[in-house]
Amino acid sequence: MANVYRRPAARGDLIAHFVYLAEHATEALADRFLSQAEASFNDLAMHPLIGAPLATRDPALAGIRKWRVTGFDTVLIFYLPHPDGVSIVRVLHAAQDWWDLLEIGDQPQPDA
């Protein structure tokens, strides 16, 4: 069985998403989000190279990849593959400025 390691920031992200969904939608939706996030993490652990690779300026995040939470297409999982699974770095809403948060090099530029 492949392992899923959650960094503290990722755990905080999951809590924030759960609270937001419970307060602005329903607790049932928040529970479904957590279940789908866990299922997505397990899928990534079994197939760690399926996410899109990203270039980052932070050497600690070299090899980082991006994937979506199943059923929640606006929530992105940022993770690092490991020989025995994956390390979940962050779980962020797609509208957040994740390019700056993760020091991603291919940040889209606003229209002039």
Describe the structure.
By secondary structure, the protein is an alpha+beta fold. Helices cover 37% and strands 28% of the residues. It has one domain: RelE-like (YaeB-like fold), CATH 3.30.2310. Strands 1-5-4-3-2 form a 5-stranded mixed β-sheet. It is globular.
Q: Please tally the helical runs, counting DSSP H or I stretches of 4 or more residues.
A: 3
Strand content: 25-35%
CATH homologous superfamily assignment: RelE-like
Shape: globular
Indicate the percent of residues in helices: 25-40%
Task: Please tell me the CATH architecture by its name.
Answer: 2-Layer Sandwich
- What order do the helices and strands follow? EHHEEEEH
Q: Which structural class matches the secondary elements?
A: alpha+beta
**Numbering strands along the chain, what is their spatial order in the largest sheet?**
1-5-4-3-2
Instruction: Give the total of beta strands.
Output: 5
Largest sheet: 5 strands, mixed
Task: State the low-pLDDT regions, or none.
Answer: 107-112
Give the C-alpha Rg: 14 Å
Number of domains: 1
Roughly how many Å apart are the termini? Answer: 49 Å
CATH topology: YaeB-like fold
CATH class: Alpha Beta
Mean pLDDT: 91
